[in-house]
Amino acid sequence: MLDLGTSFLASVSRDPEAVAVVDGNTRLTYAAWYRAISAAVTGLGELGLTSGDRLVTVLQNRWEAATLHWACQFAGVVVVPLNWRTTTDELDHALSDSEASAVFYEPVSAAAVAASPAAAALPRVVVGAAARPGETAFTDIVARDAAPARALASAEALSLMLYTSGTTARPKGVPRRHRAERAAALAHVAQNLYGRGERTLGVMPLYHTMGVRSLLAMSLIGGTFVCLPRFSVSEALRLITAERVTNLYLVPTLYHDLVHHADFSVTDVSTVRKLGFAGASMTDGLLARLEEAFRPDLFVNHYGSSEVYTFTIDQDAPRKPGSAGRAGLNTMVRVVPFGALDPAATAGPGVEGEIAVIAGGDEAFEGYWRRPEADAKAFRGGWYFTGDTGYADADGDIFVTGRIDDMIITGGENVSPVEIESCLSLHPAVSEVAVVGLPDERWGKIVAAFVKRRAPVDAADLDAYCRAAGLPSHKLPRRTVFVAEIPKSPVGKLLRRRLVSGDYALEAASPFSPSSFVKALT
């Protein structure tokens, strides 16, 4: 298997004049992009970064972020992309945990970086703005002539490390090797039937496996990565038409927003022939709406994770709504009875259990970053236990029913209820709180907080409290329900499933909230 630097060189050799990346007025061919990447590689060396070092980025989907991703592949530096909405605490944890050697940021993430003690001790590079004293501007790095970059990493070297949240809300590093990343990109091309010269909308973030996969896949076929730094429906629709986008790979929430926007009916989306979605399940209604609106040649439901890119693929998602299909090209999948230690103990058709995938697949990671306790939980007998619940039907198709650890996937983002509960529980008017994900047509699931009050407080007060505490916007409860009791088992275990199913009692009429017990926040 080639390393990714050599893989990119092969792309430059095949398609030097094909447009590789578009970001506003910036349009770079593969040959021109290679020159910019080479300059960035030189700049990384001048910052003191060497092969194996970790570099943290806090960037939106802009051409500079994509350039930096490729520069790291050439230099053998491990890119560690973070959500640009990250808090200072989350940033400090990632910088410390990864033992980062530098951090790259932009104005939208500047406040978190400025307040980070860990970032203050590192070389800092600002993208899209002038550098402050002690910092470097990215424009100064790429605006230079540099020797053509050589691929310094092997296929066995680490390519990147994504951070994913676990049941305790403590982010875990997911290191992935060059060979696994390239295998995943090749599988993405094959499973989505991408042809040479495809053009994709690069809106899924490059701190998310979906965004990285789109970036790498396009390079393999001389395709174009059309950057959309921050999702805007009107801008997405404009780019689809202006750049003649041929495929979309999005979370269901973004598809929902596209087809429900007023401009959709007057936008020419005829160039889009292939649809793919991942990150969350899609409702039957949205599947039907997209099938009618796009009439795609291919409609792929892709089920996977940061750890093992592909679990299953269904290349005709509307055929069997809710089905995640069968194992992808580079893996094996089975449903194991809950609590089983032997992965060979497969659950029968229709019997719910935990979904497991073979750990030795070409796309798989090999273990979490310095988290042996997480490895011990995840790996059994050569299989990776996903933490997802589901079942296989009589045809062998996998259906995903939820998460063992109650993680909420909203708009394609993983949100731990524990972190939100911890925040709300500190409010003096909150007696008890439980957070769950409730089904939603647009978001897949929304964050819902069930609160038992001890003093007057309403949903708006709690929202303001969470914001003031630094909870990112995508983790804020979109619905707050005031209940008489939080359901628990006889031994005191929180029964989230009863909240999801509606099996709870609303708080009786009280002076706390004379008008309403449920407040939906937008």
Automatic annotation (TrEMBL):
Keyword flag Ligase: yes
All copies of domain AMP-binding enzyme C-terminal, residue ranges: 419-493
Domain AMP-dependent synthetase/ligase: 10-369
BP-aspect Gene Ontology terms: fatty acid metabolic process
Keywords: Ligase
UniProt keyword Glycosyltransferase, yes or no: no
One GO molecular-function entry: medium-chain fatty acid-CoA ligase activity
InterPro entries: AMP-bd_C (IPR025110), AMP-bd_C_sf (IPR045851), AMP-dep_synth/lig_dom (IPR000873), ANL_N_sf (IPR042099)
This protein's name: Long-chain fatty acid--CoA ligase
Organism: Lichenibacterium ramalinae
Organism lineage: Bacteria, Pseudomonadati, Pseudomonadota, Alphaproteobacteria, Hyphomicrobiales
